[in-house]
Amino acid sequence: MWALNAGGYRRLGAAGSVAAAAGGWVAGTLPDREPWGIWVPHGAGSAVTMAGAVLAYAGLTLLVVAWWRYGRTGASTRDTLVTLAWWATPLALAPPLYSADVYSYIAQGAMVLEGHDVYSAGPSVLDPAGLGGDAAASVGGNWTDAPAPYGPFFLILARCVTWATGGTIVPAVLGMRLIAVGALVLIVWALRRLARERGTNESGALWLGALNPLLLMHVIGGMHNDGLMIGLMLAGVVFALRGKWIAGGALVGLAMMVKSPAAMALLFIGVLVGRAATGPLVRRVAKGAAPGLVAVAVAVAATLLGGTGFGWLRTQSVAGTIHTALSATSDVGLGLGELLRLLAGTDPGPVKAAVQNLGLGAALVLIACLAWRTLRARPDAARASDTDPAPERARPHARPLDPVHALGLALLALVALSPMVQPWYLLWGMTVIAATRPYGRTGTVLTVLSAALVYETHPSGATPWYGFILVAVACVIGTLLVRRDRKTPDAAPPPVDGLAVAARPRTRSEVP
Question: Is the pTM of this model over 0.85?
Answer without folding.
Answer: yes
